[in-house]
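User: Please predict the structure of the protein below. I'd like the answer in structure-token form so I can feed it into my own downstream comparison script.

Assistant: Understood. Taking the following sequence of 177 residues as input:
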Amino acid sequence: MTRLALAALAVLAVGSGCEGRKSEPSGIGNYKFGRTTRANIRDGICQPTELTDGRKATWCFALPPVKVGKRVAEVDAYFLGTEPPDIAQMTPEQQKEARNALPLIELQLKVRGCVEDETERWMRERFGPPIESKSTRVYWKNSFLWAAAFLPSEPGRCLIHFLPLSENAEIERIKQQ
């Protein structure tokens, strides 16, 4: 009877699609919202900046590029908050702790020589169908992030913004651009 019950459960599991739901992406490559912090950035140049809503942030640029379709994209990352002014005097452990307190709040991909269809196809492969499309803008959203692809943002260049859903003000600002 136990074998029969197990066999019945196995048939139900296979028939009901119990193979698991495909997980939603929370970012691109090593940049994941809710996980990546300033401490994870070892390459590139990082400097303090101010967001349009007045919050202090850290902007990291000249980061290792990523492939978007057949094109190379420059990567810019923004982290909420800035490093303490005395970080150079801290121990490596203290520096890491201070940088871990700065979460990723925006990722930008700048695709040069952009082919709009190729970039949109790349986004669809990762994030599924968009939630909205306008003439030169396409938007995606899942449980972790919101994304906007400007196709093109200027001739020969596409700009893709990724933000966690908690960044409502920045999402609205980007929608208004």
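That's the full token string. Confidence is low (pLDDT under 50) at residues 1-18.
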